[in-house]
Amino acid sequence: MARIIVSEKDNAAKRIAAILSNGKATTIKSYNVPVYVFQNGEEKTSVIGLKGHILKVDFPEKYSNWQGVKPIELIDADVVKVPTQKSIIKALQKEAKGVEQVIIATDFDREGELIGVDAMNKIKEVNSKAKIKRARFSALTESEVKEAFNNFEDIYVNLANAGEARQDIDLIWGATLTRFISLASKRLGKHFLSVGRVQSPTLAIVVAREKERRAFIVKPYWQIKALFSTDQKEDFFAQHKTDKFWNEEEAKEIVSNLGKAGVITDSKKTKKQISPPAPFNTTAFLAAASSVGLSPSYAMRIAEGLYMEGLISYPRVDNTVYPESLDLKGILTILKGSKELGDLAGEILAQKKLTPTRGKKKATDHPPIHPTGVVVKDSLKPQEWKVYEMVARRFLATLAPFASMESLRIDIDVECPSLKRKESFFLQGSRVVEEGWLKYYGYGRKKDDVVTNLKKDDNVLLIKPILESKETQPPQRYGQGRLIQEMEKLGLGTKSTRHSIIQNLYDRGYVHSDPIVPTELGVGVSETLRKNAEAITTPELTAQLENDMDLIAEGKEKKDSVVNISREMLKGILENLEKRGEEVSQEIKEGIREGKIVGKCLKCGNELRIIRSRKTKKRFVGCASYPDCKTAFPLPQFGDVIALDEVCEVCKTPKVKIVSNRKKPWVLCLNPACPTKKTSDNNKTDGRE
DNA sequence: GCAAGGTC
């Protein structure tokens, strides 16, 4: 008797084999894919790990020419499955040939079920007789895995069908609209323009914020603060109670009439406890990494590496509650062996009781991200250590005591004899009095304010008033970490894909920088879609799909019916787009055109634009008044050029930013003769191509 | 050359 167990990834296969064989499994290679083998009496078991999906959906070959096929033809085209993991499929089929039993042990979720069904169908091609079973567990612990293998279930075909509906709909909508918009704007080849169920609403979020900023009218206002001295301690600044003076004269009048004598009219000290943070799931981790300057896709890549090294747990999780089964003491004991963090871990371990914090999202997918091993700082790259340390410190903090803060608010009245009235000031500040968890996890920790002991009726002396001129600020742009949180809130993408969706917006040239700024191209594409194909720019399409997938999983709807309804909806949208084809192409081309304007010519005032020379194929910046005005500047020949709407502080020539995958973004003044280029560290402009 | 979802 022989059986094969199929898991979603190699790590899981290894673990399942170890649990079921009590550590006696041996590793063999089948087409270079690891297979874990063990024997129980007459029964031989092989365990093989896949690499996620082994098939992908695509259209048949005859649809592959973008110019030769009308986008609308894709909507009713067949959708076929093509192998993407050939050696794994070969190994799977080789090992499954002749077995009596196949056990699908992929992750317990929709995509996991689909991955399992795809594997099952590949096995059926070579072995139609084997009995197929499903092992369901939500954590790779000994008890869960053993329990699952003592109580097999059946494959949940409906759930897999729900996953297939998603695959089909994503491909049909994505490919049809991607091709339509690329053809309409003549952006073919590697500069094609993409559209998708998740990426387009995400881009729309960024663009909507940018439009708010552009529409924002900046208003000047004034604030008054003053430096006070007392007989007890250091001097301090207090703020006038009127937050914003919209009239400069009014503020000036107060400033010039302020007296010296002040008295404290009220002094309140309050103490409050600050709870330690919740355990890390992917979103919280990426937001934290983002706040220390690591982009989500970079932080994710590092986390995956640390996971493969056995230093941290699985980094793709929704869960923010440690499961009962997680051995918190064991992890602390491991961490205690760390040169850099051992002392901190020891302190937590010495607590009488370990009570971890809990986050709002309780899921059973995986435990929240936590350290699983120790490593010496110097053996990792600095950025890897930064991520490891953050995960380890977060873990410690979730077990650490409350912090407590002391806040102070003081109100001060200042006499203004010449105005015959008093002006009110206040001072607010807080400081940490008990460090608690902040000792372990101090990221983003605010500096302590000075908290004085001044009491009601104490006298203070106004030393110097200060009038500050300020401007109202438009709403802030999204940082990458914030955008991931927003996507999660709106149900866009998954823990495993959000970072790559955002990265895709960068790679397509739709956005640049962090905080995220949409390019003119990004604005053009997003606005065109919003006006002419709104459905693809809102999160509701995903919400509707989730709903339909639940119905399929429950057996209340058929996959084909859901996909066909979706096809009909897309047809309506595409017909509308085609009817407005001219406007659509104009709007995107306008975006592309605007994206090429880098500023105004200093000689004639006309536009300076990025131009590609017909003769040399090289690009440069030239004046729109050519040949009357011959102003021109060289450009580097790699990367994308992004107009910054800024001019050089020294020579007033426009500045641009060069972004590429290979190098760090690089801001440069277009003028090669600019005096700033003479300084040593900034002389890379000339001739760099 | 298309999407989004797994995983490396």
Brief description of this entry?
By secondary structure, the protein is of the alpha+beta class. The chain folds into four domains: 2-50 and 85-155, Rossmann fold; 164-214 and 480-589, Topoisomerase I, domain 2, CATH 1.10.460.10; 282-398, Topoisomerase I, domain 4; 596-682. It is built from 19 helices and 23 strands.
Verbal overview:
With 689 residues, this protein is an alpha+beta fold. It has four domains: 2-50 and 85-155, 3-Layer(aba) Sandwich (Rossmann fold); 164-214 and 480-589, Topoisomerase I, domain 2 (Orthogonal Bundle), CATH 1.10.460.10; 282-398, Topoisomerase I, domain 4 (Orthogonal Bundle), CATH 1.10.290.10; 596-682. Helix content is 36%, strand content 22%. It has 19 helices and 23 strands. Strands 2-3-4-1-7-8 form a six-stranded mixed beta sheet, with helices on both faces. A hairpin with a 6-residue loop joins strand 21 (640-647) and strand 22. The N and C termini lie far apart (66 Å). It binds one DNA strand of 8 nucleotides through strand 5, helix 4, helix 6 and helix 10.
Feature tags:
Rossmann fold; 36% helix; disordered C terminus; 4 domains; Topoisomerase I, domain 2; 689 residues; alpha+beta; Topoisomerase I, domain 4; 23 strands; DNA-binding; six-stranded antiparallel beta barrel; 22% strand
List the helices and strands and how they pair.
Elements: E1 2-7, H1 10-20, E2 26-30, E3 33-40, E4 43-49, E5 55-58, H2 71-75, E6 80-83, H3 86-96, E7 101-105, H4 110-124, E8 131-134, H5 142-150, H6 157-184, H7 199-215, E9 220-229, E10 236-240, H8 248-257, E11 261-274, H9 282-291, H10 296-308, H11 328-336, H12 342-349, H13 382-398, E12 403-416, E13 421-434, E14 459-471, H14 480-490, H15 498-507, E15 511-512, E16 517-518, H16 520-532, H17 540-553, H18 559-579, H19 581-595, E17 597-600, E18 607-612, E19 619-623, E20 632-634, E21 640-647, E22 654-659, E23 666-669
Helix pairs in contact: 4-6, 6-17, 6-18, 7-16, 9-14, 10-13, 11-12, 16-19
The structure holds one DNA strand of 8 nucleotides.
